[in-house]
Structures are given as structure tokens and as C-alpha cells.
Amino acid sequence: MHRFLPIACLLTSLFSVGLKADQYTLTIEGKANARIQANPTPTSQEFQAVSELQNYLKKISGAWVKRTTYPGAYWRANSDTPETVEILPIVLENGRHLLPEDIQKKLDQTDNPEAFYLKTGNRNGKMIWIAGKTPQAVLYGTLTFIEEYLGVRWFHAGEEGEHCPKTKTITLDEIDVFRQPWLPNRIISAWSGSVAPWKIEAYETWLTRNKFVWNINHAYSDLSREKLDHAACGNRLISGGGHLTFEQAIPSKLFAEHPELFPLKDGKRVCESRSQRCLANPIVQKMVIDHIVNHCAYGASFSISYHDSTDGWCSCPECIRMGTGENGKFSYTNLAHAFTRLISEAVLKQNPQAKLHYDMYSQFRPFPDFKDFRYDPRMIGIYCPHQRCYVHAFADANAECNRRFIQQLDQWRQLGTKLGIFDYYCSGKVPYTPLEYILAKDMKYYHSIKLDTWIEDCTSSESQYPLLNWQLYYAAGKLFWNADLDIDQLMQDTYLVYYGIASAPMLKYQQLRRELWETAPGHALYGGPKRYAYCLTVPGAKERLLGYLGEAEKMAENDPILLKRIANDRQALQDFWITESDIMLKSMSAQNDIPITKLQGELLIDGQLSEESWRQAPFVTGFKNTRTGEAPTEETRIRILYDSDNWYIGIEAMTEHAWGKLRAEARDSDGNVWEDDSIETFIMPPGEDYYQLIVNSIGTLYDAKLRIVDFASKTELKTSVLEDRYVIEMRVPVNPMQKEKILDGEVWRFHFYRNCHNLQPPQADESSSLDATPPHEQTLFRRAVVGYNVIPNGNFAILEPVKEDQNGILSAEFPKSWSGSNVELLRGDNNKNVIHLKGTVLAWLQLGPEQDGPRTLKGEIMVSGKGTISAWISTCIRKPDDQRPFGHEIKTTLLEAPLPESPAALKFETQLEPYQQGYIYFQATDAKIESISASLIRK
Q1: Exposed/middle/buried for residue 546 (C-beta within 10 Å: 0-12, 13-18, 19+)
Q2: Looking at the structure, do residues 615 and 680 belong to the same domain, yes or no?
Q3: Phi first, then psi: what are they for 842, rounded to 5°?
Q4: Which of 741, 759, 785 marks a domain boundary?
Q5: In a domain, 792, yes or no
Q6: Of 6-10, 296-300, 356-360, 610-614, where does mean pLDDT reach its minimum?
Q7: Are residues 25 and 163 in the same domain?
Q8: What angle do CA 181, 186, 190 make, to 5 degrees?
């Protein structure tokens, strides 16, 4: 296995001035000692190969190594230097008589069109053969020669992405290397907006140099021959179809005169932005077949697929019949694959060489329910694990989040067709995260199942992933040729070269970044949370990372390229990790906790909220418009009760400003309930994944774990619609959430989100939520502390004027139930107040009347500052018949810890004796306390 050498080793082993019989000197003191014998009628790839070789030899040494189309024997006879090296980039078909027998034999034995052989030898003089099965293979072989033997690296596009060593004399040792990729189609789907700050042509050049396959841009066909030659090196003709299959074959403009070609929805033919077509219509079928045949005429591929839509399908009787499987049930996946099979068979009959793909995506990802279902073996299936988790490897047997994908893919593998994966690494809200280690595990699995195609959807215009996550794509280019590559060694060597003289602190920086990412909680998936926001909640982590960057910048102060590379890291760290962790900590720490109440008595789940327990439970309210951050048009009130086995959620969705009827079209469980007037409830057990429940006004339930709809919550619910509101009452058991009980002292997290669709047009739709937090953003879910809360006013929301004798309080008002010395209140919006502690703050513990048994005090303080913080309780033991006044008789230390720079939760816990009572104290010289919570857990 070839190992990528650190730059220090490259300079000593690749470039030396001593001449030996087994060495090949290409340049001497800036003068050429080699010549390139080129094909006199080169293909685009061959011409590009020689150009790249010439240009990089000059950039490294200053010498211009000429290309010649004369036979080597001619110019050797007229050469002044018998040691001159002839470099021969050559296609097997053209150069059998010029190639050694072992090269011919090896290339003949493989049917891989991208296989190449690099070899040195002596045939009437010193030779370096770069032999390829095809012109593309010659290009890849030449780029590999430049990279691995001349020491050039193309980490990412742009000037600072290239490493090019400098030496006037280039001498190589013997070479004997055969290479071929195990994965034929290696594609990153990108466009000009997603590869900024680079131009798309520069990014495409980077793709070629790292031996990716990329689509010829159709716009090149109207440009220069140079542009076409550039595009030919992408090695892939324009692909068609996908989500635009119907827009291309049966454009929307036909709807006016031919509505019968379009889907039947709710009894009407419609043409909406993401409508499929009437798939059972013979005219639709013929138009799609003709369109694909025309597209594939010049060898381009076509993906027979459908709009990215969950409600654009036709419901006419013929389509329902077409999509009804062996079990007598209709499904969209049955309909889609019945149509795809029909179309593909007709196309292949007309053009047996057509390159056709079928997609497994969204509603047509499950295996269809047809007996002995098959696709023509010439087809390639592209499986889209939309919403897979990129914290865990695809085939990780212990990762529940991805289990359904591997199970589905195993079903499709039984067809026997070639398969590909359409991945969504950059769609998982993972900017500036070290995903290359998961990618390496994925590639080993993909290699084991003989994957044909890997496509990464890198089309985000919000985050420029090719720069932010350049390590992922750089490593991918290597793993496609060797799935067993040691990813740790590759990245170690990569960073040594990339950061050069500043590599020592940057290696520590990247190692810490990886550790923080891999130990953060939660998942990373399409539409999921910003998991990276957790990374800098570890005390001191931000300071250490910034320290490494500062150290590296000092070491690189005379190297503008290195400084730009380090600046990219600093900017990405600030834009994503620091910014998002600050937002998360501020939101999580300063907000009011979710008030929850233990159920007393019984509840009848009837959609009425009439029991005394509901009436006494405090409201969770204060929703905000998720677009504007202002108060929403309609108010939403929520109350939460619990017992040891269940959560009880009571919701009143006010409709005082309704302009129309409540939308309630989803009637099947796990349907598109979010498109109705509905409430979304998110419940996140301690240390676990979150669960989502969506309910509309008629009681249709969507329940999922993360976004996995296979989860069954066993929720009992009832709804009622009143004149000014609709009501939802739910009993949600915790056992399906893998929790045996709800225990005192636990911190659960909740979030609520409302979908409103019946307001006055044109703003008929409105979404609102607690804190305007979007759905699925688990980093911002509010806390709910279970148990008897012993900290009064622990979020400092209730204020009162400071009395004259409270001289130690430095503000005009202070949180009720709290006192202290050298402390002040810092007012915040929405009662998100902070205590600035420069001395001591204290409160009486509300331990309650039942004290006749052992108990545990368990809590946390959300705090930031400088120096350290101490916490203790000062108590005494007083039984009911003990008439003595309170005394500070027992001091128990709870906490001694350095203060984090950014708000973080510091936990404390201690045991209490029966009838123990007293005060809790916190002391620091410069601390900002955002909340304090504690529960009393009785044995």
C-alpha cells in the first residue's frame, strides 16, 4: 500500500543530486534532462496530461521539459546527453510496441478503463512509462506521477489549496506501480454557487486532479475547443432526468391543452410546482421514452426519477391500479418502480447501450411489493439514504439511526443490478466537521458490496463545503482507489504538508477538533440539529483551539499561503463552532425552564383538559413567529404533567384570528400532518435521541424517532375543536422511548412548534415555536427538571425591589428569594436575567415538609466567568419537636471548579440526612450565573 510521505521525507527521498544507475534525473540545476514523447494526435486527456506534467516540472525546478511527437530513437540519436530521460505517456492500444511486456500483460488482464501502470526502465536509454488502458487512464496516471513522485498536492481548489515543492534538480528512484480504482463512478454534485470562493472551472480542475468523475457542463458546448477539452477530462457526459424527468419530457406548459397528462389530485387535474405526471397514461409513457432515447443517443446517462414531492402523485384509478402490489395495497414506491421498469425496458429495446439509472429515494425508496420484481441487469440503481446519520458509519450494526437504510439496501441488492449511493454528507448540517473518518469506514463497506457509483450532494449555497470540509473530499479521492487506506496516517501526512512549519500546533488543533466532534451528543442528518454547536460547550475547548491557531500564525508569519490556510480555519471556527455554541448556550442557559407538574390522581384522555390537575398546571407559552421573532398571530398554550411512566401533554391552540377553516387533510398515521394546522411536540430523554409527535385538529398522529417513522410511540390522544381553539390531550408513555421510568433529578428537554394555515391571506400561513427555535434543533430545546424543585426562582425571572438593609446587592432590584453580598442583577429580554457574582449569593433550600428519610440533592448551575467558583450548603438537623432556632452547624462542599469562559453547566450532588435543612451558597470574584436548578430525590 502506497503511503503518502510527509514533505520533509519527500524533499530528501524524491529530490537528490547524486546520480546512480537506478535513478532518473529529470532536471539538473534548473535545466531539463528529460523529454516527453507524446501522441502526435492526442486526445483531450492525453494533451492535458502532458501539459500538466510540463507545467509542474517547471513550477518545481524552473526547467521546461519539451514534448515531442518524434519517435524516441530519433531524438536520442541527436541528444547530447546519454542520461536524458524519456517520459512516455501512452495508451495501451497505441503503444504495444513501445511498452515492456509486463506492462502490456498487466493492462490486458484488467477490464478497468481507468487502470494505469507507472514504471521506470532502460530501453536504449532511461525511460519512464506512464501507460494507461485508455486516454483517461493516461491522464490519471500522469496526475498520480506528479502527485506521488514529484510531491505536488492538490488539497482543495484555489492558490492556497496547492502544495508545490521547489528544487532545481529532480531525481527519482525506480518506480513500478499498477493502479486502478475500485469504484467506477466517483461524483461530487456541485454548482457555481456551492464552490465559492472559486470559479467552477477551477473546482472542476481540482476534481480532475484528484481523479473524480464529473459531468460535462452543457454550457461548454457553445464555448471554445479549450473549454470542451477541459470538460472531456471530467470523463462523464451530461446526465439527464432526476427530479426534472417530467419537466424535461412533459413540460408544464402542456397543462393548458392537455390536463390529462398531469396528476389527478382531490378529483381535479393539477399542475403544481412539484407535480408528477399521470404515470398510467400511455401518452405520458411514450413521451418519456422518446425523451430518454433522444438524450442517450450520444452516450449520456439518464436517471429515471420523480419530483422531490410527497403529495404530487396521481390518484386516478389507472395509477392506483398500477401501484397496487401483491398484498392488494397501493403505495407510491410500487407506482414509481412499475413505471420505471416499463420505461426502462422500452428504452433498452430501442437502444441496448443506453446508460439508465433508477432511483430509490423518499417515498419510492422501499422495495416494491411485486412478486419476482426485477430490473434489467444493465440498469444501475442509485440508493439515496436521505436523512441517514453521518455521526455513525452507514453499516454500523450498533447504530439504530442507520439500521433501516442498511436493511433497505440489502433488499435492493438482491436484484443483482449494479448499485450506487447518493450521499448527503454536506446536507447533514456539518460545516467544518471531520467527517473523513466516517467516510473511510463507509468506503470499506461500499467496497465490500462492490458499489458502482458514489455521488455526494454538495450543492449547498449557504455553506461552501468544498472549502469548509476539504479534508472529506480530499480523502475521498484517495479512498476511491484504495478502500483500505489508513485514514489516520493519511490525515497525519496531509496536515504535515498542508501546514508545513506550522504543523505542530495545527496537528494538535485538528486532533482536538476531531475529539470534540466525536464526543458531542446527538446525530447529524439532513434537516437535523447543528450538532457541532455542542463542540465548544466543553470548558476550555474554545480557548485551546484558539491558542493553537495563534501559535500556528506566529510560526507561519512569513508565509502568506500558510497564513491564508490558517485564516480559513480561524474563520470557519468562528462562523460555525463559536457562533453556534454561543447561541446554543445563551438560549439553553438563560431561558426559563419548562414547568412540569407531577400528576395527582387520574386523567381521562378525552380532549377536554377539565381535571383539576390540568387547571393547576402552569402554562408553557410565549411562542414566537419563527420568521420574524415577534409574537405570533395566534397564541398557543401548553401544560405538562407526568407520572413515573408517562408524560401528559395538554395543548390549547387558539384560533381567535382564524380566517378560514382548520386545515386537516392528513388522515392516515405518519402522513404529512405538518402540512395541516397542527402542533409538533419534541421530547428528548436524558442522554438520548429526541422523539417527535405531530397532531392535527382531528387527531391524526405522526410519530417518529429523529425522522424515523418506523417508531411507534403508543401515544393515546384525543382532540376537540371549540369556537376559539382546538385542544389536544396526549398520554405519551416513556417505555417506547427506551426509558423504564421518569426519575427525580433527571433533566428532560422539550420543544413545541405550531403550524398555522388558516389566517387572513396573503399571509395565510404562520409557524411559531418556543423561542422561535426551528423543529429538530435539539441543541436549543428547553429543559424540564423532574422532581421536587428545591431552588426557588432558579431562572431569576421573578424580581423584587432591593430593601434598604440589603447593602451587598448592587442593583435596584434582584431575583426574589435570593440575597447576597457584592452581587448585582443584569436584566435581559423576556426575563432572561443574569446574576453578576463578585462575592456571594445564597437562597434558602425549599426542602419541603417530608424529611423523614434519606435524600439526594442533585442539581446544576449554568455559569461563566473568570477564576473559580465555590458552592456549599450550610445546614442543621431539626426534627419537628426540636425547638432550637436554625444554626449553621453543618457545612458541605458541593462544588470547587474553574469557571468556563462561555456559559456551561457545572453539576453538583450531595446526600442529605433526615430533617436536614438550610441555605445554598455560591461564591466567585467574577462570575455570571444564568440559572440554578436542583431536585430532591427521595430514596
Answers
A1: middle
A2: yes
A3: -150, 160
A4: 785
A5: no
A6: 6-10
A7: yes
A8: 155
Residues 476 and 493 in one domain: no
- What whole-number distance in Å separates Cα of residue 63 and Cα of residue 87? 15
Place 82 in a pLDDT band, splitting at 50, 70 and 90.
low
- Dihedral sign for Cα 789, 790, 792, 795, please: negative
Length of the chain: 939
The single-letter DSSP state of residue 885 is P
pLDDT tens for each residue of 405-422: 999 999 999 999 999 999
Say if residue 582's pLDDT is above 70.
yes
Q: How far apart are CA 532 and CA 537, in angstroms?
A: 10
The answer to whether the CB of 700 falls within 8 A of the CB of 676 is yes
How far, in Å, CA of 573 to CA of 547, rounded? 12
Q: Are residues 667 and 690 located together in one domain of the fold?
A: yes
**pLDDT confidence bin for 653, thresholds 50/70/90:** very high
CB 301 within 8 A of CB 355: yes
Please give the distance of CA 914 from its chain centroid, rounded to a whole number.
Answer: 51
**pLDDT over 70 at 472, yes or no:** yes
Domain boundary among 153, 180, 207: 180
Q: What is the C-alpha to C-alpha distance for residues 640 and 595, in angstroms, rounded to an integer?
A: 7
Three-class DSSP category at 930: strand
The phi, psi pair for 796, rounded to 5°, reads: 60, 30
Give the rounded percent of residues in the chain with a pLDDT score beyond 90.
68
How many CB atoms neighbour CB 900 within 10 A?
Answer: 25
- Do 22 and 167 fall within a single domain? yes
Whether residue 310 lies inside any domain: the answer is: yes
| pTM of this prediction exceeds 0.70 | yes
Mind spelling out the 3-state secondary structure of 85-120?
Answer: EEEEEEECCCCHHHCCHHHHHHHHHCCCCCCEEEEE
318 plus 452 within the same structural domain: no
Cis status, amide bond into 762, omega within 30 of 0: yes
Which is nearest to 773 in space by CA: 684, 704, 703?
684
Range of the domain at 112: 7-180
Q: Residue 346 domain-assigned? A: yes
User: What pLDDT is recorded for position 591?
Assistant: 47
| Beta strands across the sheet bearing 240-241 | 185-189, 453-457, 418-423, 380-383, 355-360, 301-304, 240-241
Over the stretch 751-805, which tens digit does the pLDDT of each residue have?
Answer: 999 999 999 988 899 999 998 889 998 888 888 888 777 888 887 877 889 988 8
CA separation (Å) from 458 to 96, 434, 566, 572?
41, 16, 23, 17
**Of residues 581 and 149, more confidently modeled:** 149
pLDDT in tens, 287-337: 999 999 999 988 889 999 999 888 899 999 999 999 999 999 999 999 999
